[in-house]
Amino acid sequence: MTRDRSPLRYVPWLALDIVKVQLALFATVAVGLPLVILRLQKSMGTAPEAAVVQSGTFTAVLTIAVLMAIGGAIGGDLKGGYYRAWFSKPISPWWYYLQRWLLGGIAVLLAPLMLGGVLALVLHRGSGITGDLMLTVALGYLLVGSACLLFSNFTARDWLVVFLLSFMQQRLAQVVEASGNFGVTLPTWLVWLEKTLPPFHLINAMKPALHGNELLHVLGYGVAMLAAALVIVQVRPLGSGGRA
Amino acid sequence: MIRFESASKRYVSLVRRRRVDALQDFSLEMHRGEVVGIAGPNGAGKSTLISLMMGFLQPTSGQITIDGRSPRAYVEREGVGYLTELVNLPPQWKVPATLQRMAVLSGVPRATRQAAVDATIARLGLGEHAAKSVKQLSKGNLQRLGLGQALIGDFEIVVLDEPTHGLDPLWTQRFRDVVAELRRPDRVVVIASHNLDELELLADRVAILNNGRLQRVVEHTAASTGAATMAWRVSFEGTPDVASALPGALEVVGRPGTWRVIASRAELSSGLAILLGRGAILVECAPEESRLETEFRAAVAQ
Q1: Does the predicted TM-score (pTM) go above 0.90?
Q2: Nearest chain A Cα to B156, which residue?
């Protein structure tokens, strides 16, 4: 048999999975949220600008949306034993999960576009879609999504690990910043820990898009974690022996 | 084609540092055109052996190559038809979509993909279950779907781990026909099974594992020769003088007219010819225990 060796041959099926679960959920929120705002507008008499709705929404739910888009990707396949069907076929694990990660990113990037479209239709006060917002969402996916894929090599509850890690790092960043403002000296290890952890606190849809060193910091961390996740899934033992 | 050279696999638990030697110093070559059986009791190392062959695990020592490449490199380039003992597929997938997806991953060309899916559904009798999702399938039907996803890629290596697990007798027989159809000069088929009858019927050679070690390899050709002495069960109508024609005969207690005969195939044949010549009517003649069973029991007892 002459095989179809196209590296993108399975993309339509992976995309279909994401459309049926994650994108459908994002679309539901994108339609539902403006309708809730419309009801509030009728009772309160004013409606917020679409840009405010967008930045408020993505400040609140960006991390969760990313975790929903990519959570459990590797860990779920290993735990469910699906890897044995996938990777007995002619495809590399790193390539399979890179495609999966990229499609998750597209789903997350479509979320503000869908929300913006519905906001423009329902509230007639613009879409709120800006370059800054899209860059923040993309960087958020790069950082949180890569961390999730990396931890997915070790647990199917990668989403929980990354959620807790993100929460802890953001609180730690606040503590370090406050200590500087009040002239309090923190233990060295705590400052070192804050500098070492992924800079989740820099992802903020309320603020202008990152640039300069902060942008490089997030890009560097995100790309490094993504590369590490893909290298590990390629070289790690997929099986655990026995029938597990 | 598949070569194990002193391959060993040791598992070490992270916490207690407990060591388990799942496979020890295993050497074997599997060639194109043959069907190789892997037999052994529970925990003998069969599943570890298969995981090593698939590249899902790395050996602790020794080497495994497939066509000169590491198993992982081979599988990622060529693919292997692999049926696991416990078939794991996403529960929400429908039967035809599962086969479509697996055909795409296997690299079945777009032009022939639908035909391959249809043929697999027909071959494995999954047509009446086409509207069902994976979670709605019975154990036997899930096993058939697992076999379908393994075979749809038409690979040169087919690995079947406990393939008749959960199949009813009808489909167990049908499975044997399917495996017989898989035999091809450019293909190696590996079957790991507890079912010695199945391996006796299907495999050219059977590697017997126990406690992670290869105990012996039983060649089917040797089992087929008439020289090996075996136990047979022979029944006649009435009670003819079996002892004179078959000196190795011992009457089986509890079943009048039935004898247990220890003889080679040649001795048995000549003895039966004498008895039939005297007008005795044969009811049954069957090996009490196959050569493979005898070898297996001896290997496991070691």
Answers
A1: no
A2: A1
